[in-house]
C-alpha cells in the first residue's frame, strides 16, 4: 500500500541566477552589432562583385550616343567615377569613403547617395509604417477569428479571402484600386505625395503627413494623407492576406494547448481567454513573419511605387539598377541589409518581451 | 442528502471523419460533499472525457445525453454564461501535466488571481492577499516571490501545487483531478496526494480523482469507479473493491499490477487490448478478453447491478461464482 506523506524535498522556486559581468542584454547587443558590421561588409563585396560581373557598362548606360562617340567624353566619365582604376582599387576607395559615412555620388542624379536615400527612404517609410500597423491589426484580428471559428463558415470565407489576396498581383490590384477609387468614385488622388497647390512642409522626418502636422499645416498633412490612402491600401491588403493565414495556423496550434482549456476551465469569459491567453501565446510566431513583412515593405515595393508615382526606395533602386549606377546600388543594398538586421534585432528583443522563458534564460 | 455531483446515464458521442463515435455509454456516478472519489481505468476508457463533459469542455460537435447535476443544477445544456459560473467557482479542474496546463507567458500571480476577480468580485489587493494564502496552503515557499514568477521557474511538483492553488482560487466545491500525478516523479506524487487529502479534510472539498494507478486509488479514495471502454463496470468502497474485486476486469487489473498480487504471485497481463471506440462488441465490452465469458455475454452489455454492500457490478457471470480469494 502506498504511504502518503506531505512535502517534497528539494523543490523550491528558483529564478535563474545571472552570471557575473555585463548585463546579458548588453552582451547580446554588442554581439549583434559586430555581426551586423560583418554582414554589411559582405553586402558591399557581393554587390560590388555582382555589378561588375553583369554584362553592361555604366558608360553606355549613362552617356548619350553622341558622347559615346567622343573618346574624350568617355575617358572623362571613366576618370570621374574612378572606372579607370582596377576593381580592387575601386573597392578599397569605396570602403575608405564608407568608413567616413560617404556613400559616394549617384551617377544618375549626380547627388550624394546619402542625400538621395534621405529623400527616398522617408517616402517609403510613410508608406510602410501605416501599411504594417493596419495589416497587423486587421491580420491578427481576422486570423484569430478564423482560428476560433475553425472549420465554420467565417473561417471558410476568411481562408478564401486570404488565398485570393495572396494570389492577386500587386500591380493589378493597384490598377483596380486606381480605377475604382480615383477614376470612378473620385475619392482619392491618383498619385504623387502631394497636390500641386501645396509645397512640402519643412523637413523634420521627411514624412509629409508627420511634418505637416508638426508644422501645424493641417491642410498639407490632410492632403498628404489622402495621397497616401491608395498606395497604402495595396501593400496593406497583401500583407493582411499573408498574415491572416499565418496567424490562423499559429492560433489554431495554441488553441490545442492545455493552458487554453485550463483558462476556460477557470470560468473566464471567452473574450478574456482569447485576448489574454490566446493572443499572448500566438504572438511569438506572428512577430517573426510581421518582421519579415515589414522589412520587405521598407525595402520598397517597386510596382506599387511606380504605379502611384511614389518616389520611394523601390523606384530609386529600380532606376539605379537599370543605369548600373554602382554607388546608388550599393547604397540601396546597404540600406536594405541594415533594415533586415534592425528588424531582426527588434523581433528578437520582442521575443524576450513576450515570452519570459526566452527573457529569463 | 443529495450528492454534490449526480451523473445519471451519461452518454457522449464525438464526431469523427467516419461518422459519430460513441465514447461514453450509460455512465452514472455520484460524488458527495467532501468525498474523495476515484475513477480508474486504462487510458482511452473515457475517464478524461467524463471530466471534460462535466466542465462543458467537449469539442464542438459532441453529442451528450443523460443528466449531470451539480448542487442541484443540471449542467448539460447550460449556455456559455451558465458554464462560466460553474467552472472555477463550482467545479474546478487540475490537469495531468502542469507544464502544459499553466500558461508559460503569464505570471503565477496573474493566473492565480484573474478568475478570483471574476468569480469572487475581488479587487486586485484582496485577490493578491488570497493568492498568497493559497500558495501558502499548497506549501509553496516564499509565496510573494512565487506570485511574480513564471511557471517554468518551478519544478514539476511545485508547478502542480501552483495548478492546484489556481483550481482552488475561486472556492470550488468539487475538484476534478485528471491524473494529476502521472506526469510527476514518484517521490513528488506522494506529496501531491497528501496535499489533496489535506485540502479535503481542511476545507470540505470534494475530489473526483481520475487515475490509472490502482495503488493511488486505494491510498487516497474512499469510493471508486472502474471504467472500461466508456462504461462503469464496477463500483464500491475502494477497500473492498480492491481486496475482493467482483468484475473480471477489476480482478485482471489487480493481477496485472506489479506488487498488486499476493506476495509470490505472478504478474498476469490482460490478453488483448481494449476495443477502440465504435468497435466494441455488441455484448459486454470486456467479453473478448475475459476468462469467465459465457455465450450469453455477447448478447447485450450487462447493466450495473447491486452486488453486496454498497457495491455494483456490470457482469452476469463472475458474481455468481465461488471465486477463490
UniProtKB/TrEMBL annotation, chain A:
Keyword Cell membrane in annotation: yes
Query: CDD domains in the record, alphabetically?
Result: TM_PBP2
Recorded protein name is ABC transporter permease
Primary location recorded for the protein, binned into one broad class: membrane
SUPFAM superfamilies, A to Z: MetI-like
Q: Which PANTHER family match?
A: DIPEPTIDE TRANSPORT SYSTEM PERMEASE PROTEIN DPPB-RELATED
Keywords of the record: Cell membrane, Membrane, Transmembrane, Transmembrane helix, Transport
- Per the UniProt record, one Pfam family is BPD_transp_1
TrEMBL record, chain B:
Tell me what topology the record assigns in the membrane. Answer: Peripheral membrane protein
Keywords, A to Z? Answer: ATP-binding, Cell membrane, Membrane, Nucleotide-binding, Transport
Name the major location. membrane
What is its subcellular localisation?
A: Cell membrane
Query: CDD domains, alphabetically?
Result: ABC_NikE_OppD_transporters
Annotated GO molecular function terms are: ATP binding
Similarity field = Belongs to the ABC transporter superfamily.
What protein name applies here? Answer: ABC transporter ATP-binding protein
Upper lineage ranks?
Bacteria, Bacillati, Actinomycetota, Actinomycetes, Micromonosporales
Amino acid at each position: 500500500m502506498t504511504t502518503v506523506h506531505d512535502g517534497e524535498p528539494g523543490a523550491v522556486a528558483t529564478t535563474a541566477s545571472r552570471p557575473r559581468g555585463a548585463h546579458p542584454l548588453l552582451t547580446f547587443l554588442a554581439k549583434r552589432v559586430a555581426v551586423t558590421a560583418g554582414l554589411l561588409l559582405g553586402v558591399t563585396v557581393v554587390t560590388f562583385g555582382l555589378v561588375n560581373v553583369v554584362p553592361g557598362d555604366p558608360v553606355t548606360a549613362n552617356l548619350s550616343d553622341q558622347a559615346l562617340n567622343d573618346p574624350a567624353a568617355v575617358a572623362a566619365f571613366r576618370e570621374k567615377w574612378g572606372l579607370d582604376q582596377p576593381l580592387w582599387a575601386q573597392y578599397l576607395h569605396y570602403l575608405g569613403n564608407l568608413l567616413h559615412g560617404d556613400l559616394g555620388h549617384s551617377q544618375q542624379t549626380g547627388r550624394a547617395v546619402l542625400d538621395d536615400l534621405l529623400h527616398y527612404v522617408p517616402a517609403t517609410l510613410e508608406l510602410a509604417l501605416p501599411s504594417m500597423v493596419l495589416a497587423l491589426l486587421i491580420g491578427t484580428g481576422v486570423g484569430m477569428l478564423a482560428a476560433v471559428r475553425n472549420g465554420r463558415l467565417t473561417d471558410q470565407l476568411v481562408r478564401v479571402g486570404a488565398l485570393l489576396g495572396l494570389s492577386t498581383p500587386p500591380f493589378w490590384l493597384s490598377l483596380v484600386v486606381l480605377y475604382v477609387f480615383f477614376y470612378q468614385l473620385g475619392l482619392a488622388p491618383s498619385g504623387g505625395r502631394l497636390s500641386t497647390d501645396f509645397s512640402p512642409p519643412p523637413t523634420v522626418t521627411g514624412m509629409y503627413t508627420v511634418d505637416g502636422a508638426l508644422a501645424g499645416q493641417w491642410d498639407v498633412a490632410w492632403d498628404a494623407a489622402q495621397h497616401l490612402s491608395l498606395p497604402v491600401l495595396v501593400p496593406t491588403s497583401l500583407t493582411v492576406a499573408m498574415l491572416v493565414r499565418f496567424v490562423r495556423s499559429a492560433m489554431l496550434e495554441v488553441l490545442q494547448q492545455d493552458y487554453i482549456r485550463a483558462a476556460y476551465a477557470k470560468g473566464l469569459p471567452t473574450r478574456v481567454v482569447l485576448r489574454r491567453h490566446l493572443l499572448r501565446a500566438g504572438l511569438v510566431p506572428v512577430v517573426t513573419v510581421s518582421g519579415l513583412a515589414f522589412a520587405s515593405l521598407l525595402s520598397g515595393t517597386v510596382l506599387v511605387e511606380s504605379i502611384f508615382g511614389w518616389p520611394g526606395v523601390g523606384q530609386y533602386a529600380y532606376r539605379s539598377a537599370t543605369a548600373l549606377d554602382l554607388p546608388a546600388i550599393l547604397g540601396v543594398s546597404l540600406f536594405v541589409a541594415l533594415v533586415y538586421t534592425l528588424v531582426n534585432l527588434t523581433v528578437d528583443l520582442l521575443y524576450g518581451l513576450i515570452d519570459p522563458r526566452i527573457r529569463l534564460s | 442528502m443529495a450528492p454534490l455531483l449526480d451523473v445519471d446515464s451519461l452518454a457522449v458521442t464525438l464526431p469523427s471523419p467516419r461518422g459519430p463515435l460513441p465514447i461514453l455509454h450509460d455512465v452514472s456516478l455520484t460524488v458527495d460533499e467532501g468525498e474523495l472519489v476515484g475513477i480508474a481505468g486504462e487510458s482511452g476508457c473515457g475517464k478524461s472525457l467524463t471530466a471534460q463533459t462535466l466542465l462543458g469542455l467537449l469539442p464542438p460537435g459532441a453529442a451528450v445525453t443523460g443528466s449531470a447535476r451539480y448542487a442541484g443544477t443540471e449542467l448539460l445544456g447550460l449556455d456559455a454564461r451558465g458554464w462560466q459560473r460553474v467552472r472555477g467557482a463550482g467545479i474546478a479542474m487540475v490537469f495531468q501535466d502542469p507544464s502544459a496546463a499553466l500558461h508559460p507567458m503569464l505570471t503565477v500571480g496573474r493566473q492565480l488571481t484573474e478568475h478570483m476577480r471574476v468569480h469572487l468580485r475581488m479587487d486586485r489587493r484582496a485577490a493578491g492577499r488570497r493568492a498568497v494564502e493559497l500558495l501558502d496552503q499548497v506549501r509553496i515557499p516564499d509565496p510573494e516571490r512565487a506570485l511574480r514568477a513564471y511557471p517554468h521557474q518551478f519544478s514539476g511538483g511545485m508547478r502542480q501545487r501552483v495548478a492546484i492553488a489556481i483550481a482552488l482560487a475561486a472556492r470550488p466545491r468539487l475538484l476534478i483531478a485528471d491524473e494529476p500525478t502521472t506526469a510527476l516523479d514518484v517521490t513528488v506524487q506522494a506529496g501531491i496526494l497528501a496535499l489533496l487529502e489535506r485540502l479535503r479534510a481542511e476545507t470540505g472539498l470534494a475530489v473526483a480523482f481520475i487515475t490509472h494507478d490502482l495503488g493511488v486509488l486505494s491510498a487516497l479514495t474512499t469510493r471508486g469507479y472502474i471504467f472500461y471502454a466508456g462504461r462503469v463496470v464496477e463500483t464500491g468502497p475502494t477497500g473492498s473493491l480492491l481486496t475482493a474485486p467482483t468484475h473480471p476486469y477489476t480482478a485482471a487489473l489487480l493481477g496485472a499490477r506489479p506488487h498488486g498480487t499476493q506476495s509470490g504471485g505472478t504478474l498476469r497481463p490482460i490478453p488483448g487490448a481494449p476495443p477502440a471506440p465504435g468497435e466494441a462488441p455488441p455484448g459486454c465490452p470486456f467479453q473478448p478478453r475475459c476468462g469467465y465469458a459465457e455465450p450469453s455475454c455477447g448478447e447485450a452489455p450487462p447493466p450495473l447491478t447491486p452486488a453486496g454492500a454498497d457495491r455494483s457490478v456490470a457482469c452476469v457471470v463472475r458474481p455468481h461464482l465461488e471465486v477463490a480469494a
